From TrEMBL, chains A, B:
It holds the Pfam family TetR_C_33. It comes from the Bacteria. PROSITE patterns: HTH_TETR_2. Residues 10-70 form the HTH tetR-type domain. It comes from Primorskyibacter flagellatus. Residues 33-52 bind DNA. Keywords: DNA-binding, Transcription, Transcription regulation. This is TetR family transcriptional regulator. Transmembrane segments: none annotated. InterPro entries: Homeodomain-like_sf, HTH-type_TetR-like_transc_reg, HTH_TetR, MT1864/Rv1816-like_C, Tet_transcr_reg_TetR-rel_C_sf. The keyword Transcription regulation applies. Gene3D superfamilies: Tetracycline Repressor, domain 2. GO terms for molecular function: DNA-binding transcription factor activity; transcription cis-regulatory region binding.
Amino acid sequence: MTATRSYHHGNLKPALIAAGLEILESEGLDRLSLRACAERVGVSHTAPKNHFGNVTGLLTAIAAEGQTCLHAAMTDGLNPDAPRAERRRAAAEGYVAFARAHPALFELMWARGRVDFSDPVLAAAMSASFAVLRDVAGASGDPAAASVRDWCTVHGFALLSLQGVFDKDGMRHLGVQDILPDPPSGA
Amino acid sequence: MTATRSYHHGNLKPALIAAGLEILESEGLDRLSLRACAERVGVSHTAPKNHFGNVTGLLTAIAAEGQTCLHAAMTDGLNPDAPRAERRRAAAEGYVAFARAHPALFELMWARGRVDFSDPVLAAAMSASFAVLRDVAGASGDPAAASVRDWCTVHGFALLSLQGVFDKDGMRHLGVQDILPDPPSGA
DNA sequence: GGCAAATGTTTACGGTGGAAATATTGCGCG
DNA sequence: CGCGCAATATTTCCACCGTAAACATTTGCC
């Protein structure tokens, strides 16, 4: 039996995280609540407390899962033998593509006030994501500055574009590759 | 009499916006609520409905006010006769300095779900802020891409830095000027 | 087999935004 | 001047949310 159906769920912690991800996909961030997650799993709304402490703990765990997915989106299909510039472009596009594919989750992942960024699990997942960009960052100038610059640019582009800020004529055509610093010099 | 004190406030709309700004400064974004604004002004929690419709309307108006302040932060003390590169740096630093000086307000300004970005007043204020960056953007490549790139980079830096993401050694020293694309070529 | 810890439930409470009915005021118009 | 309507604000009520405390059930270990 994968799960006894009475009283003890047996797998509640991951089930709640999965429920949260589903709610984000199907109903959006503003419908994501502790009670909604619990109800979807078929459990009382106070049950999550045992595993996550409070709602912030649950949302933080969901955000960490999101970071793992973001990491995968950047590295999936990334040819390690490709030239650095190409890997850089692919990682950046993976970042933005993930944000557009999962807008609600992506927003939660950066929602200070709902998520605890000091949580070690989340911090590790975020570091792993950033490391992808760092390893392929632009080469000009201070390498630390270059990687942070790429991160800022890609992250800002993802967020602003999610907010529809570029939906006016003359901006709609812009993609990450147009935005990344050190463009291929004369496109 | 600037305001009669009975029943009709007489100046409720701007008073509620001001109250919201005060709450953001003193208590933070998570303490900002429709009821808190109303209470601070000394009015019932349903009074704002007449002027803003719902809480989103109120928060959107506060965000628009924030955009106006952001615009001012970028242009204040901006010498129009200075070389473009210098004005660009000053505007970018004004952007980030504003975010750091008013973190709660800055977050609200970009909080999809609490703010209605299709509101024309807010959209106009945002356009005005962006125009400052656009007018001083980097010169290389497509000018539209260059201005959007600057915006993304500065915005991403402001948000990520507000989240303490750069608080680890090796990143703490980084400022906007290190991050802006097209660095002065050999710092 | 029995007891302690882990896991869930029930109930209750304060906070939040919104709807509906009601009260007060301002103001235009006779 | 005063009447009546529209604007403005209040009261009351409701649904939802997160949390705490007391309680129930189950697991697992000795």
